[in-house]
Amino acid sequence: MLHLSAACRYYLYSGPTDMRKGFDSLCGMITAQMNHNALSGAVFIFFNKKHNQVKLLLFEGDGFALYHKRLEQGTYELPEADHKRNSTAINSEQLQLILQGISLKSVRRRKRYQHPPQSSG
């Protein structure tokens, strides 16, 4: 079973991905196109053109793990992406909603307290 942690970072590749790509090809995309380090421990998310397949790649300290899912029916809804950048940061909750097939546009969040970010300096 896939476990998504709020403590982890998640990066969504904004373009379509050839689902035949494996560990090494996806690592190359992370470095060259997403400008991230594949060894960082973050989860990198890739979808195919039809949005009916997803691959998640992460480095677990001693090697890479790859999660691949193909829907038998339906598609995944992706969040709005900044097309000037090749990757978009999302959180574990957003990824969970995407994987469960919940429409992101219909999700309404109730107001909650958020601690203001600390300024560095």
TrEMBL record:
The protein here is known as: IS66 family insertion sequence element accessory protein TnpB
NCBIfam families, per database record: IS66_TnpB
Domain of life where this protein originates? Bacteria
What organism is the protein native to? Ilyomonas limi
Chain's gene name: tnpB
Q: Which InterPro entries match?
A: Transposase_IS66_Orf2
